[in-house]
Amino acid sequence: MRVACIGGGASALMCACFVEPKNELVIIEKNEKVGKKILATGNGRCNLTNLNMYKCSYNQNVDRFLNRFNGKDVLSFFRQIGLEVYADEQGRVYPLSNSAISVLDVLKNYISLKPNVILKTETQVVKIEKNNNYFNVVYSNGTQEIFDSVIIGSGNLATEQLFSSFDIKFKPFLPSLCALKTAKQKNLAGVRVSNVKVSCKLNNQNFEEIGEVLFRDDGISGIVIFNLSAFMARQNEYATEVILDYMPTISEEDLFELLITRQKKLKNYVIDEFLTGFFHKAINYEILKRANLNLQNNVQSLTIQQLKTITNLIKNFKITTIGAHTNNQVACGGVLLSELDFNLQAKNIQNLYFMGEVIDVDGMCGGYNLQWAWTSGYVVAQNLNNK
Question: Element (H or E) spanning 215, and its range?
């Protein structure tokens, strides 16, 4: 069987690793090289998978697929092809080299030994046509090829056009696992704050998570913000109010008492120095500025109400998001799982498969999206082998 795989990402490479010699797999990639996104995952370290899988790890239940190829299977496979790995205390798995290049290299080395796998790079597919039992794949240069099966494994707006002509239901793609846009905030740009509780409410759905927040001059970033962006993408809304709690381990009442004691200790200081030692000086300044205080007044002059205002700002620091940055790691949306069978084949179109982020499956940060890529690539390969 001759099979076209459109997109040369993680799911395509995993499919190539497991497809048997009776199938000729042609991976068609528009970029100069395959696996480009792999190099960007985990801040260049490549978070392969996560040993802790929870129901909330994905936007829906995908256990029926993970049961066929899970995190332990991923570890076993990569060790088999020469990659040494380790897991951190949160179950996130990385290559021992801490370099995504190592992951891509072992995959490409393994695939290079398979003569039935062909890599066709710098090639753009513009159209897929179903013709009886075959598929015509049309390229941007006007040429076309005939295949017995087609796998779509690339999730973006351009890919959406390839299957929009088929009778397949899908959600429009939206950026996920990305930084969020805010109004300009130059004073906070470059500030990194750890152990912040980030909360948000959208459409009666709540998000709450503790992590690190990185301020940019036009937005906020960090793993906890990436996870928040995934929550927002699923709600199809990025413009809202986000609340940061800079001291989540202490109650508002106890913090207020702490500030009263602090006022007594620092009574001879000016207000501009009142929070020195609490947070980054830019955060301190922003909190005191929002409290509408004269920063050159004496700390002793702070009233009970002003101390309560400072307390509230530390526990409820509000940021208005106005959108999502588009340098996203994954896409939310895609072909509905209900349109696909147990082997990720379209229910109403024989021999048309989907895998990876083109399917409406997306996970939180921590290796879950790559796990879905590996799993879906394996599932499709096994079905091709059984035909």
Answer: strand 205-216
Distance of CA 261 to the CA centre of its chain: 43
Record the tokens describing residue 257, joined without a space: 């008492």
Q: What angle do CA 17, 19, 20 make, to 5 degrees?
A: 120
Helix (H) or strand (E) holding 17, with range, is: helix 10-18
Which tokens go with 280?
Answer: 């980054």
- Summarised one tens digit per residue, pLDDT across range 140-196 is 999 999 999 999 998 666 677 888 778 899 998 888 999 999 998 889 999 999 999
User: What is the spatial distance between Cα 203 and Cα 27, in angstroms, rounded to a whole number?
Assistant: 41
Please check whether residue 326 is in contact with residue 157, taking contact to mean a CB–CB distance below 8 angstroms. no
Structure confidence by residue, pLDDT tens digits, 312-357: 999 999 999 999 998 777 888 999 999 999 999 999 999 999 999 9
- Are the CB atoms for 367 and 67 separated by under 8 Å? no
CA distance 15 to 376: 8
Four-CA torsion 228, 339, 168, 10, nearest 10 degrees: 60
Q: What angle in degrees, to the nearest 10, is found between the helix axes of 71-80 and 368-385?
A: 70
Cα(373)–Cα(217) distance, integer angstroms: 33
Residues 6+ apart with CB under 8 A from 355: 11, 12, 15, 151, 152, 153, 344, 373, 376, 377, 379, 380
